[in-house]
């Protein structure tokens, strides 16, 4: 964890992108998330850390209303994207998810060609008017995801034929292609080897220039390496939220200190 | 000793062997099962297997062979003139022999005769025909002395063979019992022995299925070959008229029947595939758990209705309905039996096949695929159309082809819905018929099994078999080619 000091901790902008106040989540009888308040800043990588089952993935899935697809889930409280309540009746979750993209824990490319995988979002949202425009979007997304050089000669071969790390970068490209404002990543490196992880982490840092990124991770080193702000969750509570450097070097809450020094979790 | 009693004795011996074997294994190590190679029950099981399996196998083989031996031995006793008298057909004489032999037992029981008494009976001295008639064995003519003697031999030989079988089976059981019990020692790998036996059992079971398939194909091929010796293959494959005449001079062209089969199946699939698929999509993607728990069993009830009931539905309801509201107003015919009727009803029958299989296949598409699509802001129907269905496609094609195989083989609905007239026509409101229906109609009735009119059934059966086989192979190829697209 020595490298955290050498990392640039600049937060490029201080405008708030997402505001969450008093968020509660129930899965049936189970109270999974208790009274969470978080401000996610624009142009920042925010990491959620905490032991398994602490509610960090649950909270992430609240941000783009993916919990709507879970029948037993109930979300209370207020989450605002650019000052607009995303749980308002007038908000279409489908449109919301186009603005807040998501990358999942396990790479899940569609059983289609690499090109079709990336073109999926632009196609369903009608973002392009011509084939050449679509080609351009696909190329840009693949370049941003640092995958273009590896796949430019085989865009028509199936996305499932790529290696695990490439698949995950393909999923990131797929999410980028819809040009979202926020990118949510649910443990994007847990199924990857160290080299692929390094590539994805580098990518995350570059993506910060275009969107706010929220990343859930089990690896504290990863949180320290890629994020500017860190939130620590424990047993459904948000224990501490602040600058990554401060959380890792000078935590205010004793629970955070126990976790990052490896005594709990 | 009857076969049932004999098997009971063998099984009793096996149970005894189990207990003794277990006991012997335990006593060999002074009651400490840890010193044994296998659990004590495996030693017991090995003795039980050695007792029962060879003995029962011997019994089964013996029961298979005994009738053949009995027939050939007895048939040799019958003089040529008796065979000639019954039209040169030995099997008719042998049928008499068997019936007389059975009757003799009853006669003996009634008159209180012992074995010697039966041997002393003579057909030329007493009126055997009426005595046999008294015990319920009716014979067409007076009993010929030679046939009667053959029957006596048949009976006594049968009895002695039967006793010999009991002896051999018991001997085999006892030998197996003794051998297995003798070789029990703590080092014996009884567990592996039982494992091997289970493996053999499993192999044998799968062989039965394979062997049956080959047997059926072989019988179809042989009978079809007989047919093609009597009827030119060119006419069968290339003629377009189907007009069997039991007086001879029939034209047995395949195509009207194949056309009917394909036409009816096509309409059935046109009904079943979209409806079944859409029902499956609703059930797996949209329906809540409660709806699913009620609707799925209800839909599967459709699969449990016998096809004859669907046939009635076609005959009484759908046929007249289609005639009155579609065929007559459109001027396409006035028959209530039509390809359309049979096809629509058959399609309804096939809906649960398509929906149930497709539902399972759609459910097998990983949730990660759907999450990925939802996460990009796709709606439910976009997700289904662009991600779930393409991923499930090979399985869905398999389900539809399976339904097609069933449609091709269906008989009752066609008889009652489409009629029995073999015709080559494009009009779906005309009566037509299929291969299966004609197989049934060629084989029902009192016709001998030597004319092309009856033997054609086997050639038709073989054709049908080739069609369904080709469909299954096609399904397999499609599934192989596109399998494991996701993962």
Helix content of chain B: over 70%
Q: At the third CATH level, what is the topology name of the largest domain in chain B?
A: MetI-like fold
N-to-C terminal Cα separation of chain B, in Å? 62 Å
Low-confidence runs of at least 5 consecutive residues of chain A: 1-9
Instruction: Write down the CATH class of the largest domain in chain B.
Output: Mainly Alpha
Q: Give the second-level CATH assignment, the architecture of chain A.
A: 3-Layer(aba) Sandwich
**Largest beta-sheet characterization of chain A:** 6 strands, mixed
List the secondary-structure elements of chain B in sequence, H or E: HHHHHHHHHEEHHHHHHHHH
Q: Which outline of chain A best applies?
A: globular
Largest sheet data of chain B: 2 strands, antiparallel
Spans where pLDDT lies below 50 across 5 or more residues of chain B: none
Mean pLDDT of chain B: 86
CATH architecture identity of the largest domain in chain B: Orthogonal Bundle
Task: Bin the helical content of chain A.
Answer: 25-40%
Structural class by secondary-structure content of chain A: alpha/beta
Major interchain interface with per-chain residue totals: A-B, 30 and 23 residues
Whole-angstrom Rg of chain B: 32 Å
The proportion of residues in beta strands of chain A is 25-35%
What report would you give on this structure?
The complex is a heterodimer of chains A (265) and B (487). With 265 residues, chain A is an alpha/beta fold. Chain A has one domain: Rossmann fold, CATH 3.40.50.300. Chain A has helices spanning 56-63, 93-99, 114-125, 131-144, 148-151, 164-177, 194-207, 220-226, 244-249, 254-260, and strands at 16-27, 30-41, 45-49, 73-81, 84-85, 100-103, 182-186, 212-216, 229-234, 237-243. In chain A, the strands form two sheets. In chain A, strands 6-7-8-3-9-10 form a six-stranded mixed β-sheet, with helices on both faces. In chain A, strands 2-1-4-5 form a four-stranded antiparallel β-sheet, with helices on one face. In chain A, β9 and β10 (237-243) form a beta hairpin. In chain A, α3 runs parallel beside α6 (164-177) and α6 (164-177) packs parallel to α7. Chain A is globular, with a radius of gyration of 18 Å. By secondary structure, chain B is an all-alpha fold. Chain B has three domains: 3-188, no CATH class; 191-230; 237-482, MetI-like fold. Chain B contains 18 helices and two strands. Chain B has a two-stranded antiparallel ribbon with strand order 1-2. In chain B, a hairpin with a 7-residue loop joins β1 and β2 (251-252). In chain B, α2 (40-75) runs parallel beside α8 (190-230). The longest helix of chain B is centred in the middle third of the chain and has 41 residues, at 190-230. Chain B starts with a helix and ends in a 5-residue tail after the last helix. The mean pLDDT of chain B is 86. The interface between A and B is medium-sized, with 30 and 23 residues.
């Amino acid at each position: 964890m020595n490298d955290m000091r050498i990392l640039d901790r600049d937060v490029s902008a201080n405008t708030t992108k997402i505001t969450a106040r008093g968020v509660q989540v129930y899965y049936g009888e189970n109270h999974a998330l208790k009274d969470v308040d978080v401000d996610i800043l624009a142009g920042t990588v925010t990491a959620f850390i905490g032991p398994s089952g602490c509610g960090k993935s649950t909270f992430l899935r609240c941000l783009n209303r993916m919990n709507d697809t879970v029948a037993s889930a109930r979300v209370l409280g207020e989450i605002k994207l650019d000052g607009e309540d995303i749980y308002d009746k007038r908000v279409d979750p489908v449109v919301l998810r186009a603005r807040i993209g998501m990358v999942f824990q396990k790479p899940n490319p569609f059983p289609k060609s690499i090109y079709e995988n990336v073109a999926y979002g632009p196609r369903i949202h009608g973002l392009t008017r011509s084939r050449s425009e679509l080609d351009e979007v696909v190329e840009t997304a693949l370049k941003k995801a640092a995958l273009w050089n590896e796949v430019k000669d085989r865009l028509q071969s199936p996305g499932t034929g790529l290696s695990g790390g490439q698949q995950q970068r393909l999923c990131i490209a797929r999410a980028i292609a819809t040009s979202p404002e926020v990118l949510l990543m649910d443990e994007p490196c847990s199924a990857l080897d160290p080299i692929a992880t390094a590539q994805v982490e580098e990518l995350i840092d570059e993506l910060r220039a275009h969107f706010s990124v929220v990343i859930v991770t089990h690896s504290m080193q990863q949180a320290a390496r890629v994020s500017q702000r860190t939130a620590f969750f424990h047993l459904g509570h948000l224990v501490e939220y602040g600058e990554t450097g401060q959380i890792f070097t000078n935590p205010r809450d004793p629970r955070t200190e126990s976790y990052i020094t490896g005594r709990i979790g | 000793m009857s076969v049932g009693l004999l098997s009971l004795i063998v099984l009793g011996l096996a149970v005894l062997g189990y207990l003794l074997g277990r006991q012997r294994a335990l006593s060999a190590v002074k009651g400490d099962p840890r010193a044994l190679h296998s659990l004590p029950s495996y030693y017991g099981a090995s003795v039980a297997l050695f007792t029962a399996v060879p003995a029962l196998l011997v019994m089964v083989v013996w029961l298979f062979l005994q009738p053949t031996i009995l027939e050939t031995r007895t048939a040799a006793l019958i003089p040529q003139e008796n065979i000639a008298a019954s039209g040169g057909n030995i099997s008719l004489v042998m049928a008499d022999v068997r019936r007389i032999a059975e009757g003799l037992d009853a006669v003996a029981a009634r008159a209180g005769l012992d074995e010697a008494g039966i041997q002393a009976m003579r057909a030329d001295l007493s009126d055997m025909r009426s005595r046999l008639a008294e015990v319920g064995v009716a014979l067409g003519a007076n009993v010929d002395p030679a046939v009667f003697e053959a029957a006596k031999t048949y009976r006594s030989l049968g009895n002695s063979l039967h006793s010999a079988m009991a002896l051999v089976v018991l001997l085999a059981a006892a030998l197996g019992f003794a051998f297995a019990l003798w070789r029990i020692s703590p080092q014996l790998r009884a567990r592996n022995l039982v494992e091997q036996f289970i493996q053999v059992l499993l192999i044998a079971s799968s062989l039965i299925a394979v062997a049956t398939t080959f047997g059926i194909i072989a019988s179809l091929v042989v009978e079809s070959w007989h047919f093609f010796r009597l009827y030119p293959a060119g006419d069968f494959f290339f003629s377009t008229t189907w007009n069997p005449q039991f007086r001879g001079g029939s034209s047995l062209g395949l195509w009207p029947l194949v056309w009917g089969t394909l036409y009816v199946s096509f309409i059935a699939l046109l009904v079943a595939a979209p409806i079944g698929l859409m029902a499956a999509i609703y059930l797996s993607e949209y329906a809540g758990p409660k709806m699913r728990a009620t609707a799925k069993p209800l839909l599967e009830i459709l699969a449990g209705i016998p096809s004859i009931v669907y046939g009635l539905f076609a005959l009484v309801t759908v046929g007249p309905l289609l005639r009155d509201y579609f065929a007559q107003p459109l001027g396409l015919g006035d028959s209530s039996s039509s390809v359309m009727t049979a096809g629509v009803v058959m399609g309804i029958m096939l809906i649960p096949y398509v929906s149930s299989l497709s539902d399972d296949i759609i459910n097998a598409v990983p949730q990660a695929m759907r999450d990925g699509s939802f996460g990009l802001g796709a709606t439910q129907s976009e997700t289904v159309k662009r991600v779930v269905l393409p991923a499930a496609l090979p399985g869905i094609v398999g389900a539809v082809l399976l339904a097609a195989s069933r449609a091709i083989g269906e008989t009752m609905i066609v008889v009652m819905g489409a009629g029995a007239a073999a015709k080559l026509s494009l009009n779906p409101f005309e009566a037509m018929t299929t291969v299966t229906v004609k197989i049934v109609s060629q084989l029902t009735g009192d016709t001998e099994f030597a004319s092309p009119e009856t033997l054609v059934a086997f050639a038709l059966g073989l054709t049908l078999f080739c069609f369904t086989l080709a469909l299954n192979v096609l399904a397999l190829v499609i599934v192989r080619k596109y399998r494991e697209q996701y993962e």
